[in-house]
Design a protein that fits this description.
- The chain is an alpha+beta fold.
- It is about 35% helix and about 30% strand.
- The protein has three domains: about 5-130, DnaJ domain (Helix Hairpins), CATH 1.10.287.110; about 135-195, Urease metallochaperone UreE, N-terminal domain (HSP40/DNAj peptide-binding domain); about 205-275, Urease metallochaperone UreE, N-terminal domain (HSP40/DNAj peptide-binding domain), CATH 2.60.260.20.
- The chain is extended and about 75 Å long.
């Protein structure tokens, strides 16, 4: 079971009050509820994580255990679940829950653990035997541009000779998966993986966009208005005199549309790249020499 930062899932600080936990959970659960996001696997997973986080952090005992175990919470909770299940099945009069955690029983509990580096998972007996009981799925990839992700678009998906028109909402994320209502010939679920091409102007980070703006040395030193690309065309953006190379400006609301939220956008971040002049004339060299002596 992979460790999850439940505080981060709910957008909270570690010293958050129960009232804050309750408030954030309600707002996010409403946003990612399956009824509002039909066939959206990403939203479905987010909703599940929110419920997990709320279940742990809203319970003072579970929260204390979670805070204590830290990164080892995944392993601890799995062992605790196995122990609890065994306890419920036993009918021995003098059996105690703590008896499960003797050295011998702890060894048995970890018999089916597989270490995958950062992720440790527990395997059932059927999984250890190589039996795959996951529901069958058929994944279809489709590629769109960042501009199409910004405006929203449609794609025609062919599933076993059937053509399905799929609407992709504005703000859709790279590698987001959408589950279609249709089934394949072998009764498998059809999942569409949306991939977004790299863009020559913008780098996307969640709902924000980042762009590099090249300015001349003279513009950086004297200030002025520079041309900056946005998803709706170029704009003139003012910079102050003596703007440093690498300085970053933010324009609020000029990023990507926020998925499933009407008229809400991320931000655009502009990084200044000062271009040094080349092929200087003799006069320019003399002027720079004069400046160096000031």
């Amino acid at each position: 079971m992979q460790y999850k930062d439940y505080y981060k899932v709910l957008g909270l600080r570690k010293n958050a009050s129960q009232e804050e936990i309750k408030k954030n959970y309600r707002e996010l659960a409403k946003k990612y509820h399956p009824d509002r996001n039909p066939n959206d696997i990403l939203a479905e997973k987010r909703f599940k994580d929110l419920n997990e986080a709320h279940d742990i952090l809203s319970d003072s005992v579970k929260r204390a255990q979670y805070d204590l175990m830290g990164k080892n919470w995944g392993s601890y909770s799995k062992v605790a679940d196995k122990a609890k299940s065994a306890y419920q099945k036993t009918q021995e009069k003098d059996f105690e829950f703590k008896d499960l955690f003797t050295r011998e029983r702890m060894s048995d509990a970890f018999k089916n653990v597989v270490d995958l580096g950062k992720e440790t998972i527990f395997k059932t007996k059927t999984e250890a035997a190589g039996i795959n009981r996951k529901p069958k799925t058929k994944e279809i990839k489709t590629t769109i541009s960042l501009e199409e992700a910004y405006t929203g678009t449609t794609r025609v998906i062919t599933v076993d000779k059937n053509r399905i028109r799929l609407k992709l909402k504005e703000g859709i994320a790279n590698e987001q998966k959408l589950k279609l209502g249709a089934k394949g010939e072998k009764n498998e679920d059809i999942v569409v993986l949306v991939e977004i091409d790299e863009n020559k102007n913008f780098t996307r980070e969640n709902d924000d966009l980042h762009v590099n703006a090249k300015v001349s040395l003279y513009e950086a030193m004297l200030g002025g208005k520079i041309s900056v690309p946005t998803m709706k065309g170029k704009i003139l953006f003012p910079i102050a005199p003596e703007t440093a190379n690498g300085k970053v400006f933010r324009i609020k609301g000029k990023g990507m549309p926020i998925y499933n939220q009407t008229n809400k956008f991320g931000d655009l971040y502009i990084k200044i790249e000062v271009q040094l002049p080349t092929k200087l004339s003799q006069k320019e060299k003399e002027l720079f020499q004069q400046l160096s002596k000031l």
